Amino acid sequence: MTNKLDSKDRSEGDREKSRAYQREFWPGILAYGVVLIGVLVWGDLDGDSPWRFLWAVLPVIPALWIVRAVLRHVRRIDDYQRLLLLQALGGGFAVAMIASVTLAFLEIAGLSIQGVGWIIYGAGMLGWIISGAVVGRR
Amino acid sequence: MKNGLKTLREDRGWTQGALADRLGVSRQTVNALETGRYDPALPLAFRIARLFGQPIESIFTPPEDQGVQEFEA
Q: I need a labelling partner for A26 at 20 to 30 A (CA). Which of A59, B30, B53, B64 fits?
């Protein structure tokens, strides 16, 4: 039997941690989007300039800010939430590894696949999200 | 591990969120503790014991089959 004391509302501490995470995460995403668009529009990645390699890796800089935000969030959360996050990351890692090995064997067998890195990235992220939803429901 | 956290909390009229704030953990963690899905590490167990003014062993009860085995020297 549930009562009003079993409310699923987040605690004030949860909200504060979430706000801190959002404050650090979204500027990184915004900067990543701006740099990415700039690189795609003006980077001339299909050209011959040797600078194109520098432009191609430029979005990594704001992406590192996102990584910093995630790591700081991990330091703020408690042990149980870290355990759930670890399980979700493990799921994502496993999916990425399986995707990587599968695509590698398909390439050995002669199948030409464009954008292998992005496929593995997408599979890993999707695996992380789905695993996170599954472990969060337990 | 079984525990009497839910009863102790409800006796004080606290929501899970209110207890979470007092312990410095998330509401999700309090829920996992109360339903026995998560056994706390010692620092959190001590915080819980201190908050409710009771020894750890009166709040948390290990399963019968997990007692310490005694060996003859």
A: B30
Residue B50 sits in a domain whose CATH number is: 1.10.260.40
DSSP string covering B9-56: HHHTT--HHHHHHHHTS-HHHHHHHHTTS-PPPHHHHHHHHHHHTS-H
Q: Is A62:A28 a contact under the CB 8 Å cutoff?
A: yes
Choose one of A77, A97, A114: the last residue of a domain: A77
CA A119 to chain centre: 14
Residue A26, domain extent: 14-77
Q: What is the ipTM of this complex?
A: 0.83
How many structural domains are present in chain A? 2
Instruction: Output the furthest CA–CA distance in chain B (Å, rounded).
Output: 51
The answer to whether residue A4 sits within a structural domain is no
Q: At CA A25, angle to CA A15 and CA B31, rounded to 5?
A: 35
Q: What is the pLDDT along chain B (73 residues), one digit of tens a residue?
A: 889 999 999 999 999 999 999 999 999 999 999 999 999 999 999 999 999 999 999 999 887 756 566 666 5
Residue A3 with chain B: CB contacts under 8 Å: 10
Verify whether the Cβ–Cβ distance B17 to A7 is below 8 Å.
yes
Q: Nearest-CA residue of chain B relative to A81?
A: B29
